[in-house]
Amino acid sequence: MNNKMSPSVSPRFFSEKEVSKHCTKDSCWVLLGTRVYDVTGFLRMHPGGEALILRRSGKDVSREIEGPPHRHSENARRWMEQYYIGELDRDSIDEDTETLRHRKKIPERTTEEEEETSAINKCSKVNEETDLVDWRKPLAWQVGYLREKYDTWVHQPVDRPIRLFENDFFEANTKTSWYMVPIVWMPLVIYLCWYCYSLLAQERTRLFITSDYSILVHKYSFPFIFMLGMFLWSFIEYCIHRFVFHMRPPAHNYYLITLHFLLHGQHHKSPFDGSRLVFPPSLAAIAIGAFYLILRQLLSEGLGTSLFVGGLCGYVVYDMIHYYLHYGSPRRGSYLYGLKAYHVKHHFEHQRAGFGITTTFWDYPFNTTMPEQTF
């Protein structure tokens, strides 16, 4: 989607003096040539941190967009157009806005008119050939009709909330606040840690190497089994993200396209929809329960449950990190700073690579690391 001003709305003109005044977290404008963008709402989302944008507020960022050090992708450029608010009048350096309006014969706007214009820019269908869907209606039952256009469309991100279902109950159950994940699952993690340690302390849990040979699983080995469970989760996380969330549904299959959109496509279409950055506990419980049953079938209770609780803790960490990579502002040079840049690049430029969330480790042996950028 390209949220440029509707053709029926005349672009606003700003003097350089007026643009330069917007240089704070509460109001941050930048220039791209003579085009003016209000990027206030994007500060927290920027993978390089808000300070990088604030230092360039009121200035032309064309050089930074082209790089080096980072050439922004076509999706990033398309994304920026959503914040377009008007044009720079270079002949008005020393003129105030009132003089500019008078000379350009641009009528004064009321607050209601400005809000209406903003609503038009953010919510109207600008180009039916590129939008492809009716944003005023739920998307769940529309995307399947995109067929061969779906894959390209879903990987062109937009900055807007998405409604999936008409029914309010179903819609509400697709949204989850980030803090619900630790609230629901961490008490279970803590209880199972105590339960597993107590079970191993009875010294009846054995790991059978062969039918005739086994070794005792000591209680002090629990931390190592727990960490192994977290490590195994990181592999499961990679596999789910790569092979399930990023499957390519056949263009002719309406239902697989719809399923893909509900599972992960909606997140790629609207990557900063804060209500859908973590899994609803009700849906996660199905997958978590399945993994528990598999482990209990393969291993003894003490060993299987110890691995499971480590994996469950790994899942909670994964969901929290995923949310933070979209909305957090990690310190420059830190591990999470690198992960944030890596993950945002996955959304905007390399959707078929960079599947690791909590770690990039598994991208290396499976050759799905993102290619190095060259100039």
UniProtKB/TrEMBL annotation:
GO biological process: ceramide biosynthetic process; fatty acid biosynthetic process
Membrane topology, from the record: Multi-pass membrane protein
Ranges annotated as spanning the membrane: 178-200, 220-240, 277-295, 307-325
Binding site for Zn(2+) 2: H326
Annotated positions binding heme: H46, H72
Keywords of this entry: Endoplasmic reticulum, Fatty acid biosynthesis, Fatty acid metabolism, Heme, Iron, Lipid biosynthesis, Lipid metabolism, Membrane, Metal-binding, Microsome, Oxidoreductase, Transmembrane, Transmembrane helix, Zinc
Subcellular compartments: Endoplasmic reticulum membrane; Microsome membrane
Keyword Oxidoreductase: yes
Entry's EC annotation: 1.-.-.-
Note on cofactor: Binds 2 Zn(2+) ions per subunit that likely form a catalytic dimetal center.
Superkingdom of origin: Eukaryota
Pathway terms, separated by semicolons: Lipid metabolism; fatty acid metabolism; Sphingolipid metabolism; galactosylceramide biosynthesis
Binding annotation for Zn(2+) 1: H241, H246, H264, H267, H268, H322, H343, H346, H347
GO-annotated molecular function: fatty acid 2-hydroxylase activity; heme binding; iron ion binding
Cofactor(s) the protein requires to work: Fe cation; Zn(2+)
Family: Belongs to the sterol desaturase family. SCS7 subfamily.
Name of the molecule in the record: Fatty acid 2-hydroxylase
Species the sequence originates in: Sinocyclocheilus rhinocerous
Biological classification of the source: Eukaryota, Metazoa, Chordata, Craniata, Vertebrata
